[in-house]
Amino acid sequence: MSAPVLPVAPAPEAANDRPADNHRSDARPPHSLGERFRASQARRRRASVAVQRPGWFSYTFLIGVLLASIFPLYWSFLIGSGDASTITQRSISPIPGGNFFANAASVLNDPTVNFWKAIGNSIIVSTVVAASVVWFSTLAGFAFAKLRFRGKNGLLVFVIATMAVPTQLGVVPLFIAMSQLQLAGTLGAVILPAIVSAFGVFWMTQYLSQALPYELIEAARVDGASMIRTFWSVALPAARPAAAMLGLFIFIATWTNFFWPFIVLDRQDPTLPVALSLLQSNYFVDYSIVMAGVLLSTIPLLILFAVAGRHLVSGIMQGAVKG
Amino acid sequence: MTAVAVDERPVRRLAFSQKLSRWDVKFSPYLYISPFFILFAITGLFPLVYTAWVSVHEWNLIGGQGDFVGLDNFAFVLQQTPFWVALRNTFSIFLISAVPQVAFALVVAAVLDQNLRAKTFWRMGVLLPFVVAPVAVTLIFSNMFGDQYGLVNTLLGNVGISPIGWHSDALASHFAIATMVNFRWTGYTALILLAAMQAIPRDYYEAAAIDGAGPIRRFFSITIPQLRPTLIFVIITSTIGGLQIFDEPRLYDQFGQGGANSQWMTITLYLYNLGWGQLNFGRAAAVAWLLFLIIVLVGLINMALTRLIASSSGVTASQKRAVRRAERASASTEKEKVSA
């Protein structure tokens, strides 16, 4: 996102770290020049309360939140780098053991879990779902935001209303349908129900109605571009930032999704969360191996987060303001 | 379009391409939105409606559709103790997670809504848990909340508190599961609230500060009322998601049945057990519809409550006052600029 849309706190008129004083000396009109100057200084100081640099307390608090965010992952590394006996010790050393790679290897080589296959499946499913949601959402968003057609408002309201429908509750018929289509157990059964998203359509509509000027579309039309050409050459490039965010968001949501893949996929051919759940359901639960698997499955998203996390942050915040 | 045709043939060609272009303009929008509506109808709407059809039939995973049984499936489910236990657990977990989560997210958002250094860094740090899959979160936390060797009980033991049965006790297990939910979602919620906070005009705060309102007072008299629409949004979405909770209770122990005495069995887990444990799709579909109705009901109650709370706390009056103050403040700064 190159253009920050978010409203930012206005810069303080004068950099001022002194605490606000609550004198009310300007109750009477100031007369002398010096008095007037002092009064205006005081007013300025008070007015800048909201944009002061925050104190140490805020940073301490945020460091605490940050530690709480990281700690469970660190804990899983601690357990995942030990061995089966680590977890039963009274006090666990805060220094990781040296078994992480051995544990990771035994996760990857566990024949009952099919971890490699799960990684491949997760990549396929998440990529396909993200790409198709972005494509269909941009297409529909372009129509809703910039084209005129009968029934547009009613249909848009319908889209927004469907965002609140808990479609997850349709699992029973969905499973019946997938079984009858011979799709149960295949990746298609996971991908198909997810290839469109009401949220995505709403998101792209909101973005395009602001980011794509009518003049551009008219110019393309006057130049003789067909509708689909206009979409391809004008709307699609304009939609790119929002499309990237939507894709990122959907990718993460699909990667972490468990309920439906768990129902419809075979144990032999799972996605990562399903494979993870199998690690725990082994007869004897070796937590060092489970935790190594947890970390292994999280690392791809952590890398993605390191690269694109700032876009995810601004995506969530923009969606909130508009939604 | 503006070209003036002189002889016959170009006119006809133009007319044809114009017709084509008119069709293009007329039907393209429908063409572009139709994939969404068709696919959503098939994969989202149809299953939901068809759930009602399944729920009034005898229906097994193996045998398929059986006799029409009316509301027998609903009656059966409503007479089952596990259903009511699951309902209790679901609401208990939902309340223990949603209320502190929104409250804490408000605090985090308020802290982030300052003139911080390295803003993006802190925001990303808060959001980090969001990329950890619920399954992974559950496996980590169910280990930390272990009854015997868990970290939490060890720490509690260090300060002299006897170990808590995080798995054996119902309320304790709800607390542990709620902690997982909060771990993953608090930062996300905080960012949404932060975005809404930043949309509040800063003049309001300056005006309140001039009138001597401290940070706490400003938070409750300006921030909270201004956040109302966003709070409603957050509460509604967390209701829809929270009442369908499945991943965490399913993986809280290795058996996935919601505990030996169904201590932490939720409605969606009950649905799963009926459908894919007992292979009774009719009853599972009945549970799905009941849960759907419950979600709608709770959503409506939420909305009514939020409206009530927000409008009864004298919001409008204080807002009006704040606006007036803001106007006064900006007028005075203008004057200052003029005099300077």
UniProtKB/TrEMBL annotation, chain A:
Membrane listed as a keyword: yes
CDD domains linked to this entry: TM_PBP2 (cd06261)
Keyword Membrane listed: yes
GO terms for biological process, alphabetical: transmembrane transport
Residue ranges, compositional bias (Basic and acidic residues): 15-36
One Pfam family recorded for the sequence: BPD_transp_1
Keyword annotations: Cell membrane, Membrane, Transmembrane, Transmembrane helix, Transport
Transmembrane segments: 56-75, 118-143, 155-177, 183-204, 242-263, 283-308
Entry GO CC: plasma membrane
Membrane topology: Multi-pass membrane protein
Gene3D superfamilies xrefs: MetI-like
Subcellular location, record wording: Cell membrane
Domain ABC transmembrane type-1: 119-308
Ranges annotated as biased composition (Low complexity): 1-14
Primary location class: membrane
PROSITE patterns with a match to the protein in the record: ABC_TM1
Family per similarity comment: Belongs to the binding-protein-dependent transport system permease family.
PANTHER family named among the record's database cross-references: ABC TRANSPORTER PERMEASE PROTEIN MG189-RELATED, ABC TRANSPORTER PERMEASE PROTEIN MG189-RELATED-RELATED
Name this polypeptide is given: Cellobiose ABC transporter membrane protein
Originating organism: Microcella putealis
From TrEMBL, chain B:
Gene Ontology CC annotation, any one: plasma membrane
TM region(s), chain numbering: 30-53, 91-112, 124-145, 175-196, 227-246, 284-305
Top-level taxon of the source organism: Bacteria
Signal peptide as annotated in the record: none
InterPro entries the UniProt entry points to: ABC_transporter_permease, MetI-like, MetI-like_sf
Positions of the ABC transmembrane type-1 domain: 87-302
Membrane topology: Multi-pass membrane protein
Name listed for the protein in its UniProt record: Cellobiose ABC transporter membrane protein
Organism of provenance: Microcella putealis
